[in-house]
Design goal:
Blueprint (H helix, E strand, L loop, with lengths): L2 E7 L3 E8 L5 E8 L5 H18 L4 E8 L24 H9 L3 E5 H12 L8 E6 L3 E7 L2 E2 L30 H5 L1 H10 L15 H9 L3 H25 L3 E5 L7 H14 L6 E4 L6 H8 L5
Parallel strand pairs: 1-4, 4-5, 6-9, 9-10
Antiparallel strand pairs: 1-2, 2-3, 6-7, 7-8
Helix pairs in contact: 1-2, 3-9, 5-6, 5-7, 6-7, 7-8
The chain binds zinc ion (ZN).
The site of zinc ion has 6 residues, from loops.
Length: 305
């Protein structure tokens, strides 16, 4: 076993942990708010957290890995930009971690890191090819091929949220139309519910209606909410099935806030997949690692198998 320092650098929170390279267990962890000041401020906070953790942990770390909330260049070392905070453009994050901590460093975007974490230590364990999808406010994903993270030629692989399902569909955050994210994400469900407010939510300020409210209302029997939910889940099932027909994964691991709906989400998705996926042998599983997935994912980038 060796100890790896893993960072989860998100838009609002920064978490760090010491991870056991054999088991993926998080041996110690700390978290702090993400500073708003761009790359140098973020780097400073990371160093602070990392050094505090290393001081507490007796065994020296062998590597540093970062799960970053934004696209990363195909070198696996340089941040392309942050999705949340300006000032991260083309930042050499891996090199800076190496200078600071004196060990090799690797980085990946958060969905890719989560995919690798779930593959090595979570719900994806035991297959050879895996698709990971996270469905929250947006939809992200990562692809494991032959046991390795598939980043693609220019590191854009796994962007399942931007598979184009309905070219005349709603506007998407990427600038396109009708991407899966514009049809099935938490934001798109909330958008639909604000546009046509379900009966049981009509006394609410529309601006405060969330996807969670729609799920709760649909489960309580509100037919309007149910229609919005089924529309979103229907497209999600189509999206997952299409991705399966491209990749033929053994397991699809689904994470993110929407999976809190449990079987209310998973049962209809399995029905759609049974009908749409060629070969039909793909398992659909809920992500297993919870909110330490980013820390474990950062560390997993540094474990060669
Ligand atoms: Zn898009």
């Amino acid at each position: 076993m060796s100890a790896i320092l893993g960072f989860d650098f998100g838009g609002t929170k920064l978490a760090a942990g010491i991870v056991d390279s054999d088991s993926g267990a998080v041996l110690a962890s700390m978290r702090a708010p993400t500073p708003a000041g761009g790359a140098e401020a973020g780097m400073e906070r990371m160093i602070e957290l990392g050094q505090m953790l290393c001081a507490k942990h007796p065994e020296p770390i062998s590597a540093v890995g970062v799960s970053f909330g934004g696209p990363v260049e195909s070198d696996g070392r340089t941040v392309r930009l942050s999705m949340h905070i300006p000032g991260w453009e083309s930042f050499p994050l891996a090199a800076r971690c190496e200078q600071t901590f004196g060990v090799p460093a690797r980085i990946a975007n958060d969905a890719d890191a989560a995919a690798l974490a779930e593959y090595r230590f979570g719900a994806g364990h035991g297959c050879t090819h895996m698709l990971y999808m996270t469905v929250s406010t947006g939809i992200g994903g990562g692809v494991i091929i032959n046991g390795s993270l598939h980043r693609g030629e220019h590191a854009w692989a796994g962007e399942v949220g931007h598979m184009i399902l309905k070219p005349d569909g709603p506007a998407c955050a990427c600038g396109g139309n009708g991407c899966l994210e514009s049809l099935s994400s938490g934001l798109s469900i909330a958008r639909d519910a604000r546009a046509q407010i379900p009966a049981s939510l009509r006394d609410r300020d529309p601006a405060t209606i969330t996807a969670r409210d729609v799920v709760t209302a649909a489960q309580a029997g509100d037919a309007d909410a149910r229609r919005i939910w089924e529309h979103a889940v229907g497209w999600l099932g189509i999206g997952i099935s299409s991705a399966c027909n491209l990749i033929n994964p053994g397991i699809v691991v689904l994470g993110g806030g929407l999976t809190g709906a449990g079987e209310f989400l998973f049962a209809p998705l399995r029905d759609i997949m049974a009908y749409r996926v060629l070969g039909k042998a793909v398992q659909l599983k809920s992500a297993a690692l919870g909110d330490v997935v980013g820390i474990i994912g950062g560390a997993a980038l540094c474990i060669d198998r």
